Amino acid sequence: MLYLLINSAEAAWLPVAATDLAKEVDQLIYFLLEISVLASILVIGGFVYFSIRFRRKSEADKPPAITHHYLLEFLWSFIPFVIFMFVFGWGWLVYDKMRDHPKNALEIHVYGQMWNWDFVYKNGRKSSRVLTVPVDKPVKLIMSSRDVIHSFFIPSFRIKQDVLPGSYTALSFTARKKGKFPVFCAEFCGAGHSSMLATVHVMGLREWEEWLVKDPYKGMSISQIGESVFQKSCTACHTATQEKRIGPGLAGLFGAKREFEKGGSLVVDENYIRESILNPSARVVKGYGNMMTPFAGLLQEEEMTGLIEYIKSLKIEQKDK
Questions:
Q1: Which domains does the chain have, with CATH numbers?
Q2: Is the distance from CB of 315 to CB of 251 less than 8 angstroms?
Q3: Contact (CB, 8 A) for 150 and 163
Q4: pLDDT at 73 over 70
Q5: Which residues are bridge partners to 141 per DSSP?
Q6: 178 near 203, Cβ under 8 Å?
Q7: pLDDT tens for each residue of 27-55
Q8: So what's the pLDDT on residue 317?
């Protein structure tokens, strides 16, 4: 079978598949290639056969009258339609898995800038150009750009996500193989675009835990930076519990559903918190007036990230402690 021939040569023409999702993407690619080869053989083979079989042998030869064959016409339309819908459904299932973010995943912040990738871990450790993660553990990357649009692409994981200025995007994966895998920027971002490279270093969980605390970042963790910003700038209107002041208490906010004065609702995520800090009048929560001061231009990116992480860490049960 053609699939076996292609699969046996995987390392020669595709990057090694280092996640379960990558293997599923490869299977879809193999299937599409098989169907394309089969269709090419049928179309080109039929063209050659009919060219020879019904070639004109003399001037007196006249082709027979052409009549309809309804069953044949139906089949050559219906069969490709079925194959197309099958591929569409298969592709949708793979894409849905690609966009799913596992709960309790290890969260790492990614910053793109011309022309470098920076990575910040929960304990405050930072690294450049090398993303270090444990094998067999779900990882969620929360990404933002410091300048223009970039695109974070890991070929061996078969995943790619645009990284936007002034917003957050996310990408999740679970690496199944140890080793080092290249990262590229897949969005042209200037003269140094081709040199915007990084590496995903996948290691064992124990080895990764030792790496994380070895020579750690000597400053505060991301959440501690956010707590400091909260204490300086937010306590006049908000509390770290569910107690209401001018604005709502922030405990349990992340992941909760918010309804707005002008209609509509959404589940609180990083982008909503960021928008509420920078442009609070964009969505005013029911029961609260439009009284919050916009913080656009007043916070550095690291302070914004820290404040969001601090708000995410505020749980409802803290009220009872």
A1: 2-52+64-98 (no CATH), 106-213 (2.60.40.420), 222-320 (1.10.760.10)
A2: yes
A3: yes
A4: yes
A5: 108, 171
A6: yes
A7: 998 999 999 999 899 989 988 988 888 77
A8: 63
With CA atoms as reference, report the closest residue to 98 among 213, 19, 201, 186: 19
Closest by CA position to 16, among listed 222, 194, 182:
182
| CB-facing half-sphere around the CA of 84: CA atoms within 13 A | 6
Whether 90 has a pLDDT exceeding 80, the answer reads: yes
Phi, psi (rounded to 5 degrees) for 233: -120, -15
Tell me the per-residue pLDDT of 185-231, one tens digit each, with 9 for 90 and over: 999 988 888 889 999 999 999 999 888 887 554 567 888 888 888 88
